[in-house]
Specification:
It is a single chain. By secondary structure, this protein is an alpha+beta fold. It folds into 3 domains: 2-49, no CATH class; 65-267, Cation efflux protein transmembrane domain (Alpha-lytic protease prodomain-like, Up-down Bundle); 273-368, Alpha-Beta Plaits (2-Layer Sandwich), CATH 3.30.70.1350. The protein contains 12 helices and 4 strands; from the N terminus they run αααααααααααββαββ. Strands 1-2-3-4 form a 4-stranded mixed β-sheet. Helix 9 (206-234) runs antiparallel to helix 10 (239-267). The chain is elongated. The two termini are 27 Å apart.
Length: 375
């Protein structure tokens, strides 16, 4: 496999544009063209890199960032617990509806950290006999559940804020409570530090990605909450409940957007074109006995991919040889960091009218590399 890729049978390396030429200052349309070819360079280099190099790079990244990962997860949990207590004090002491909204979001932060931690432990301790496909999707399901809980809390706060607007107070402004503002400002600064810390490793760990998104959302929520709370106490009373409604709507939209993304992965959203190209290239040049790649499909089954590949072999080769080719390709694909499971199907001819990789190709005769447990 690695030898086949290093040989570069499609001569892709000769089509890589000079990076120095692409980096020269360009304007307008030329800049867009240069960006396009720079992206093509990255994709070609990714295709030409041996699979073991992808695995080795992923392992090195995981090992080098192991300590940073623990600090991000456990540090976020400890900080969120302390900040939740701080925000509870700020909301109760000031009576500001905007700060009650930031308090509700802060209370759910440590709960989300605990949920992520428990889901990660459940995935690590999976029983292969009870869950042969793994339990990675439990993390996605937990994220969706948490998103809808946050949305429900936001709707409750919207109702309280609307009730406050319907019964205006006699005073033009509400009382100003400086310690509460200081407490929320401390929370804002802490979240900014956690956001910057998680930024560099957010793409290596799905848990850190969720934490990074949470810190990013909290920055906007806490910052806007401070402004509307101070506005209600210094300018007009209605700024505070109106700010609480805006914050609650913002929180709902952010979490529903996250829920939509997680739900798409849970129900099997297709992989992006670059990943499909990479998988196709690996299958095409895995073994000289593979005459054609008929179909390549890849979809999310939780945070990782399930891959299905149909390959065409000579009908005169033995079952043992065809099985070995399919099994070695399956092992190669499953060694990729983003792949959870791969199914390789052998066929003796391409689908009728097929000229390569197709999306809906029938398979007249199938030999599976995993013991025949797939239809």
């Amino acid at each position: 496999m690695d030898r086949q890729i290093s040989m570069d049978p499609l001569n892709l390396r000769n089509r890589v544009f000079d990076p120095e030429e692409l980096a020269r200052p360009n304007t307008g349309k030329k800049r867009k063209v240069a960006a396009f070819y720079a992206e093509q360079n990255d994709q070609i280099e990714r295709l030409l890199k041996p699979v073991h190099a992808h695995v080795s790079d992923a392992r090195e990244i995981q090992e080098s960032n192991a300590l940073r990962y623990k600090i991000a997860v456990y540090g976020s949990l400890a900080a969120n617990i302390l900040l939740a207590a701080l925000q509870i004090y700020a909301a109760i002491a000031s009576g500001s509806l905007s700060l009650f909204t930031t308090m509700a979001d802060a209370i759910f932060d440590p709960l989300s950290n605990i949920m992520l931690f428990l889901c990660n432990r459940a995935v690590a301790r999976v029983d292969g006999r009870k869950y042969p496909a793994g339990k990675a999707r439990i993390e996605t399901a937990g994220n969706i559940t948490f998103c809808f809980l946050m949305t429900a809390v936001s709707l409750i706060l919207i109702a309280f804020s609307a009730q406050s607007l319907a019964h205006p107070p006699s005073a033009a402004t509400t009382g100003f409570h400086l310690p509460s503002i200081i407490a929320v400002t401390i929370a804002f600064c802490t979240k900014l530090g956690l956001f910057l810390y998680c930024y560099s490793i957010r793409n290596q760990y799905s848990q850190v990605q969720i934490l990074w998104q949470d810190h990013r959302n909290d920055l906007a929520i806490n910052g806007f909450g401070i402004l509307t709370s101070v506005g209600g106490s210094k300018l007009r009373w209605w700024i505070d409940p109106m700010g609480a409604i805006i914050l609650s709507v913002l929180i709902s939209c952010l979490w529903l957007r996250t829920a939509t993304s997680e739900f798409n992965m849970l129900i099997g959203k297709s992989a992006d074109p670059k990943t499909l190209q990479h998988l196709t290239y690996i299958a095409m040049h895995h073994n000289p006995l593979i005459e054609q790649v008929d179909t390549v499909r890849a979809w999310y089954s939780g945070p990782r991919l399930t891959v299905e590949v149909d390959i065409v072999l000579d009908p005169n080769i033995t079952l043992q040889v065809s099985h070995d080719v399919a099994e070695s390709l399956q092992i190669e694909l499953e060694s990729l960091p983003e792949v959870e499971r791969a199914n390789v199907h052998n066929d003796y001819e391409a689908a009728l009218g097929s000229a390569g990789v197709t999306e809906n190709a029938p398979t007249p005769m199938i030999v599976t590399s995993d013991g025949g447990d797939k239809p």
